[in-house]
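Appendix B, Record 12. Input sequence as logged:
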Amino acid sequence: MVSIPPLLFALLMWFIGTAAVVWLDSRPAATFRTSLTLAGLVAIAAVALVGSIADDASAGAAYTGFAAAILIWGWHEMSFLMGAVAGPRRTECPPDATGWPRFRAATATVIHHELAIAATAILLFAVSWGGPNQAAPLTFLLLFVLRLSAKFNLYLGVPNLSDEVFPAHLAYLKSYFRKRRLNALFPVSILASGATAAWAWTVAEAAPTGSGAAAAGTLLAGLAVLGLVEHLFLVLPMRDARLWRWAASSTRAAQAAITDGRGRSHGL
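Logged structural output:
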């Protein structure tokens, strides 16, 4: 049977993780190397932890795996937002680019980062392969899918780009976004997010109360719902970046970084 604590834990990890990434990214650029190094060490330790708890089917291990995935994801998001890992192209979209040339140019701005995330997802499945605790790799994979969905929707066009806390050094990426009433992918993204949440909830309901499977299913359901909500912000007049202004406003660098929005990371 589903319980409330895993949902609250998913919300708390999402909120704290996103706020931490926004705050670190808004600090002076001179701090980026140290932040990335320390976060990288945490991510390596988290990967090792995922492997060590793969055979643990308890609810506590599911919580730990979920938290480990969030920490690893946060490191990847920092590497992107701080400009360390993005893609070979770091210039604005050619004004006359359409169709395949535009898609190819847009892909070149983020391909290195997306490949790094894909490789990490494979690594997490590899270190936990065969074990009953798959909370970490499934969490990371869901974050990856939600990220890709959001990026494609921004590329195809949505009413609200919502990029208020966007780093100045990545401002060129906004030229690849498109503002339009709606696109054909958006309803598919909403339905897929909802279906994922329903599936994970069903798995949690069917699992024994207090088990790792019940906790993992509920955590994934909560994360899918958060992803769905973030997708809705793409079409609603409200801007979700206002949630994170407080995290960026405490440093001088934040004033230079706040332009007209936040690069969609989803889940963090």
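The radius of gyration is 18 Å.
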